[in-house]
Amino acid sequence: MGAAENFDLFGIDELDSVVPLAMPVGFNEEDSLDDKIAATVGAIKAQMSAGKHIVVACSFGKDSSVLLSLAIQAMEELVAETGTAPKMFVITSNTLLENPLMDNYSLSEAAKVRAYAKAKNLPIEMRIATPNTSNNYLVNLIGGRLIASTPDAGRKCTVMMKIQPIERLKKRLAKEMGYSKKEARDKFVTLIGKRYSESENRGRGMRASGERPDVPVKMVRDKQGKAYEWVMSPIAHWSLDDVYYLIAYVRNDMITTYSDFEQLVEIYRTANEGQCMINVYAKGKPASSGCGSRTGCHICLAVKDDYSMEAMLRDDQYAWMRPLNEFRNYIQRNHFRIDKRNWLARTVNEDGTITLAPNSYAPGFCLDLLRYALTIDADERRAAARLGIAPRFQLLRLKDIIAIDFLWSRYGYQHALMACHTANEVDNGKRWPIPAADPNESYPTSLPSIRKVTLPFGDREYGHFAVGFMDVLAAVTDTLDPFAVPTGDEFDVDEEGAELFWGFELENALERYGPVDDDGTRRDGEFSPSNGAHYFLRMGTVSLFKGSEGEFERMMQMSNQIHRHGLRDILNDPEALIDKLSQHGDMLPAAGGQFDIEDLIRLSRSQSGKGIIAKEVTV
């Protein structure tokens, strides 16, 4: 297929067996830009000529914008020569948490791609991949399912918000084109805008994975070799100067493409206080070190400081984004505080014990995050209304609030429908401003070294069929199958159902199951968190991933156990958990000997009353 030999990501020994020592003219770093343009366009066109559907992965940053312009040029040349070309797909991702300026810019550029393709009669489709409810990062963060990604903790956020949504979109495209899974693997070639010279680590990684600018490489995604895709890096050998000069060509009308790149330059200029790309089209040579800007997710903790957002905020015209930065910084300040973590594991051991260690965010912290996020959204709606414009960003939609409520029910984090109750309070004027950072307080930057403490957890009710998956209300009323729940291809909240619930059923639901009575009295203990989950399933507003019923049963058992033992409000306090769990007389006998509460209290206080850092203890 005019592609490199099969390349196994799991078994490469010699780089020379993948990357040839001598490359054709136009594919070497030292070649002229004109040679590089001609060679790159030719390589992409060759794949189109072979009948391959090109998929351009595009973020509309400088590198991917240049790549997209070259791919469009290749298609234009092929159509001019032959009158036709295989359909090309341009894919970008919207994480739902993008820097608002970048988000609006990307949507604008996507519209330009569609308009250009239509004007030139080119078979190009623009698609935008968004995370589903299961991969909605902020929903999972506030819902207590995961913690923020930090520099030392990997980039699970990228997998959730970008990689998996794009993979799902690719599968959908193949199905739309009528290809089987096997056919699709060899019908599509994905173009990515990575370059060897971006950084030493990037270059090393690209060469280790065998990426090439001239032909696609078969990227194997599993050890069996059954999951793979063809990937090509057409500008891998381009320098930063090359990228800048091609942008300059476009801005000076030397090359015509889908965009004039004016917004692109403005985005980089804004993110770097006017210091980057201003002189891109001037005669002087741009700095090879690059601009260093990042205009990704406004909530990102994978970088220590969001310099681009902070640079923007120094310009008064972008002050409306300040709450987003404050929200991000609040999470960062509290991320490693162990009193903001849930200390109870999510799995009960076979002997009925459970492990104490700081893991996900604590219920109180999650509730605070929801309050701040909803307040930010409400304030933005009000500010936009005063300006006569649409809101410039939105952190949480109605379906996201319901998803958070469902997750809180799943984990026993809050009273039933607490998220909906909170959103309703905000709708009625209540606000929770984000606390300012204390300049005299130092915030932890890592968790302490902590060893496990194992405590008894299961009792004689734990595991009973009536306190988990079963909808007791449905069983009692004998109107619905108590074990029937809506399922689908993924965990999801029906968008139309969410709107109908909010417009017609919210008041009734809060009156029946909500955390507060009509007179304002809290209903602590009256309803278990699982009541909220069963309610949304009974209404058909929420659907489970098909086949996950067993996992749902397990988590509902834990949720109800947390509720019965009154642990919700002390999940962030290991000493209180130790004391509480030790006082239940109906606990099943724990394996491992006698329960010594004094030893465990002493362990808990070994970190100034804030954690457990000692030898493992089984009780």
In short:
The protein has 2 domains: 190 residues, 3-Layer(aba) Sandwich (Rossmann fold), CATH 3.40.50.620; 283 residues, no CATH class.
End-to-end separation: 63 Å
Q: Which strand order spans the largest sheet, edge to edge or round the barrel?
A: 3-2-1-4-6-5
Question: Helix coverage percent of residues?
Answer: 40-55%
Structurally, how many domains make up the residues? 2
The secondary-structure class comes to: alpha/beta
- Tally of strands: 12
Shape descriptor: elongated
Content of β-strand: 5-15%
The pLDDT mean sits at 85
Largest sheet: 6 strands, mixed
- Helix tally equals 20
Give the C-alpha Rg: 28 Å
The poorly predicted ranges are 4-19, 277-293, 588-619
Pfam families: PAPS_reduct (PF01507)
Organism: Marinobacter nauticus
GO molecular function: catalytic activity
Protein name: Phosphoadenosine phosphosulphate reductase domain-containing protein
Description of the structure:
GO terms for molecular function: catalytic activity. It holds the Pfam family PAPS_reduct. With 619 residues, this protein is of the alpha/beta class. The chain is built from 20 helices and twelve strands. The strands form three sheets. The chain has a six-stranded mixed sheet. The chain is elongated, with a radius of gyration of 28 Å.
